[in-house]
Amino acid sequence: MNSAVAHRLFGWLPADARERALRRLLVIWCFAFAIGLILWGIGARSHPLDISLVYSYAISTSIWFFSDPLRIALHGWLRTPPPHYWASNLRVFAYMLVAATLGYTLGTAIGDAYAGRSTWEMVSQSPKRLFGIWFSGMVISGFFVLGFYQRAKAEDLRRQATEARLKLLETQLEPHMLFNTLANLRVLIQTDPPRAVQMLDRLNDYLRATLRGSRADAHTLADECARLGDYLELMAVRMGPRLVFGFDLPAELQAHPVPPLLLQPLVENAIRHGLEPRVEGGRIDVVARREGQTLRIDITDTGVGMAPDTQRTDTDGGFGLAQVRERMASLPGGAGSVQVSSQPGQGTTVRLTLPLQITP
């Protein structure tokens, strides 16, 4: 709901800033109501409550507009980088001072139009009082700006910590897959040298794709499935016709960002614990779908299945499922979830649910 409203109101802003701008506006409005009540009470109720509220909402919303969404729209000139579009430099400080002044002036004009009077008459009648009102407005605005700035810095620190954690998990996942593949390769060298050579070629392709992906700035669902396809081709050399796999990835979801190596541990588990114990092998399908404001990814195999207690404790799923749960918990706000459904002898489905991040 918030995403749809933010897109309608702030379609002219970068996609990663729209929901944050809407949340800050709602915070401002909550405080504006309280400030309007306080001003009404301080004024000994000398004027109707609605006039105090109109002044409060008009001034706070105007200042917010100049200092928040307009600041984001001017991020190139202000040299404020994403994702939070804040920077502590002289240009930003000067802009925020001008933005607060313009916002206060515009908001006061709106309030005057509603009240049918002119605040600027105080310039000749009581300049000190007018300055006091303006100064208090600047202090309140500065308080909110400082609060939002500090919150953005805290979010950046959390994001950096999450990225470091994900990098650590990647360093655990890559060797895990590589050691398993090398162990299989060693067996094939002794039993089937031609297939060992074929597997070595596939491993070379997979490692080249992995290295290329590690240097990319963004990792999409299409990238993840492409690398997963290389891995499954590698496993197909060893398992032969016992392994069949397929992907169902709608075009509108291909550019969706996902953490690297999110799906591979689940496919490794499906092969090792689901298909390999089955004499005839089986099939693995990776299906992505959009459900409202979420992305759903299902990894389904037709293997031997898992016992109910294993689905809860990861004792059989082991390294892979536990690491995927940890990576999903590392998403911003812990918004990702993992569900496992399985019946012994009938296969397993692992469902990942992530917040939808599609740029219109």
Provide structural commentary.
The chain is of the alpha+beta class. It has helices at 2-9, 18-42, 49-67, 69-73, 75-78, 90-115, 122-125, 127-191, 193-214, 221-239, 264-275, 308-313, 318-329, and strands spanning 243-248, 282-291, 294-301, 337-343, 347-355. It contains 13 helices and five strands. This is histidine kinase. The chain crosses the membrane at residues 21-42, 54-78, 90-111, 131-149. Keywords: Kinase, Membrane, Transferase, Transmembrane, Transmembrane helix.
How are the elements arranged and paired?
Blueprint: H1 2-9, H2 18-42, H3 49-67, H4 69-73, H5 75-78, H6 90-115, H7 122-125, H8 127-191, H9 193-214, H10 221-239, E1 243-248, H11 264-275, E2 282-291, E3 294-301, H12 308-313, H13 318-329, E4 337-343, E5 347-355
Parallel strand pairs: 1-2
Antiparallel strand pairs: 2-3, 3-5, 4-5
Index terms:
single chain; alpha+beta; His_kinase_dom; phosphorelay sensor kinase activity; Heat Shock Protein 90; 5-stranded mixed sheet; 63% helix
